[in-house]
Amino acid sequence: MNLIQVSRFLLIAAQLCFDDRLRLNDWHWVRSPKDESAVVNVGFTEARTSVIWLAVTLMVGLFVGALMSRIHSLLPSVFSEPASYPYVDALTTIGSFSAMWLLARRRVESWLYWIVIDLVGIVLYYLKSVRFVALLYVVLLILAIKGFRDWRAGAHTIGNRKHMSESYSLEEN
Predict the structure, then answer these.
(1) Alpha-carbon span 56 to 51, nearest angstrom
(2) Which residues contact 61 (CB under 8 A, 6 or more apart)?
(3) Domain total in the chain
(4) pLDDT class of 16 with cuts at 50, 70, 90
(5) Beta-strand (E) ranges in 49-147?
(6) I need a surface site. Which of 7, 36, 106, 143 has the fewest CB within 10 A?
(7) Average pLDDT, the chain
C-alpha cells in the first residue's frame, strides 16, 4: 500500500466519521429528546427554497468536481494521479454538507438527500473496490429511509405538512 492509497483511505475514513457522527447524533437527538415533554418540530421546505438548495448544491458540486478533476495537474507534487470519479465524489460530498444543513434545520427533505447520497455511495465505493465502505452505505441507506419515514410521519402528525418558516424550535406540550 503506497502513500497515496493510505491518504485516500484516511480521507474516506475521516469523511465517513464526520458524516456518520453528525447524522447519527442528530437522528438520536430527534428520536429521544432530553425533555420528554418536548416535541421536535420538523417540517417541509417550500418548493422554491428546495429548488434553490438543489441548484446551489449541484453548482458547487460541479465546481469542486472540475477542480478535483484537474488537481493532479495543479498540484502534481501532492497528487501524482488523477482523481477517480471526481465529479461523483464532489457531488456526494457537497450533497452531504447540504443534507447536514437541512438536517440541522429539521427539514424532512434532508433524508431524501441522504437516500440519494447513500445510493450513489454504494455504487461509487463498490466500483472503487472499497467493499466494506459500500456495505456501510447500505446500512446508512436503511437508516436514511427510516429517518425519512419517521420525519414525514412526524411532520404529518404534528400538523407541519405545510411548509415551515426558516426557523425551528422545540415546542412544549
Answers:
(1) 9
(2) 87, 90, 91, 93, 94, 95
(3) 1
(4) low
(5) none
(6) 36
(7) 78
